[in-house]
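Input.
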Amino acid sequence: MKRVLALFLAAVSFLLPAGASATGQTAERLIVGCDTMSLYALPLMKADSTVLARLEKRLKEIDAPWSTACWRAYIGVWRLDKGRLWLERVETTKGDPVFTGAELFPKSAEGSRARADWFSGEIRYGTGALVYYQHDGFKRNLEREWVAEIFEGRVGRGTKAYRNRLYKCGVEMMDNVVRVAAAFDSLYVGTLPDQLALSVVFAPDSTGRVAQIDRARLLMPGGEKIEDAADPRLQAAVQAFRSVTRWDAYWIEGMWKKQSCTLTLRRNGKAAMSRIDRSKSRSAGGKGFYIALAVCLLAAGTIGYITLFSSASPVREPDPVIEIKPAPVTPVPAPPTKPVIQPEPIEVPVQEPVVIEEPVELLPEVVSPLDGTTVTVFSMTELLYDQTMADWRTHNGIDVQAEEGAAVKTAADGTVVSVTNDELMGTTVVIQHSGGYTTHYSSLQADVPVAEGQAVHAGDVIGCVGSTSAAESEMGPHLHFSVSQNGSVIDPHAYIDE
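Output.
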């Protein structure tokens, strides 16, 4: 078995270029406030070549360990702070120090870290459990993710937030193949070869049903491809495919993730197992070495083919979307399914009805928490369209747009009762005032200058405008400001200067 492993690694090493990331790669680390998240980007790769040469030299000097899961042999530790991206340090995969940010970029150093002024591009970072995994670079998704544009080290406007999910509705692939084969056999009664294949690119929804088909084709013996949406054979095959309601669904970055599938079908309701499936049902016995060797050679050949020909592949027009016209057919029995519940990028808990009171004088001295433009008004009786959620809902405060980093002030004298990193509303400061009044300041930057229990006075700076609200990410930098008295929300518009 050792000989097999050595042969496989040698083949892969030969075919893959140095620094390749064809396998799943170890993420960088990004610190946001008190949270350490996985960073799916490599900002150092855009640094000056002399800097990269110094880094490579240092990694060789210390004989930094590497693996196929981290071809670069280092982990960058980054921080988002005050609207900037900073390089804190560079470590080996075992956590040993390589460079501080200041050592690697002395011209942009502040303390031990360095401003990432050289970097412009998109970064994706997240936290939570793994939802989707693909063994290729950073093509995986966590429960909560953010995508931000960086320009010369500064965070741009319009950071997007996503809540990713897996809807586990699927069964063994072979069960779905059998269902499609049986349905197809009942739908199309014309002449067809004994064996053919259906290739589709599709997206299922939370119920396990096929919600969308982007591409469909029938692959016939001899290499013939049927792609005409009007072809009755393809229509029957697609209709049969849609009859299956047992697919796992991924809600990734605000949309159903597209999946590809090729089903080998036989006439008379039979389904053909793939060679891989058949091999699983047999005992290898003493032939294990040769089977493993064949798998290795197949993998190496596949990689070599992709390496040699992928770059020269011609650009082709997208395949047509297949629209299936209903036909009077006998439906295939399927297990009962739950009602369709369309998910949203971010869940917002349903609140109990609240009593709305007209605002009275909050306190003898009231100041506007922010000078800016109100982009969303208070409304608890009429529904407002929410760009982030793409739906209509009430709004318990007002949203004031301003430049990233603009100072946010407390509206009146009071005491800070909480400073939290709310999952939906971002960094939030809550202040209790006299008379039963409470003010909420959300979507602030992660670092705030106040703490729980601290006394504040009207006009004191309690934070800076940020883009941390996942539920209002489409607005960009803004303040979500709300006011309540004895638990009942009131319109805070009177306390905002436009």
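Residues 1-21, 269-297, 302-361 have pLDDT under 50 and may be disordered.
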